[in-house]
Amino acid sequence: MSRVQKRLTKTIESRTNNLLKVREFVLEAARAFGFSEEEASKIVLAVDEACTNVIKHAYHYAPDKTIQIVIEPNKDRFQVTVIDDGKAFNPSAVKLPDLRQHLTHYRRGGLGIYLMKSLVDKVEYKYSPGKKNEVRLIKYLSPTTSNARG
Amino acid sequence: MADFKVHQRDGEGVSVIDLKGYLDAHTAPDLENAFQRLLNDRKYNIVVNCKDLSYISSAGLGVFMAFVEDVRKNKGDIKLTNMSAKVYNVFDLLGFPILYEIYKDEQEAISRFREQKKP
Prior knowledge:
The structure holds two protein chains of two kinds. Chain A is α+β, with helices and mostly antiparallel strands. Chain A has helices at about 20-35, 35-60, 100-105, 110-120, and strands spanning about 10-15, 65-75, 75-85, 120-125, 135-140. Chain A has a five-stranded antiparallel β-sheet, covered by helices on one side. In chain A, helix 1 packs antiparallel against helix 2 and helix 2 packs antiparallel against helix 4. Chain B is α/β, with parallel strands linked by helices. Classes of the chains: A alpha+beta, B alpha/beta. The interface between A and B is medium-sized, with 28 and 25 residues.
């Protein structure tokens, strides 16, 4: 199975109607890299959650800001970086809720970050005050996540 | 936007909401409006048929969380049916099967409401 290792970037305006474009962009790259449909759709959802967080929490729904999505495949590592220059927000500092406790109290916040962390192998966050924020989502290709059969 | 549609069907004592397409942060308000209309009309027995739902993110899951408490306070429920494996996996990852009744088929959910109504 030949894996596509090309670096790809896409820049969108910070509006929720652009999430569909982001998902299509990531899905195509994840498939080309060699992920199975199931694993590709997990990466797509994780990136959707990261972009939604930026729109909501970093930009507070301001529609004229930009979000850059950078895909960097490297050997068996598929990395998607979501970059914004809004308010710093660190998903890795959010304590994962006790899900059962959380749900039985009908709380809706924090579900996106929980999903992000469950769907990929690693979530990293980088920011410097006054500069850009970066959320990196990393997933590894393995015999169980690949679309190669046999 | 044509990427998500909500359609409501009212039967005897049970309202069915059909979801079609992609439920994300952009389209979640459409589902919120549909639930709000049901609550305004005091329709608390709700079945959500997910047969044509292709995608759900946490913004969509959050809508169910936002309304289920009010619905249950009024002795109703939100029951989910006909999910694809892909959509079910997202619900499952967040532990939703603990909180929601999920059925393979719409009729099963409707029958369950009718049984629960019996004295």
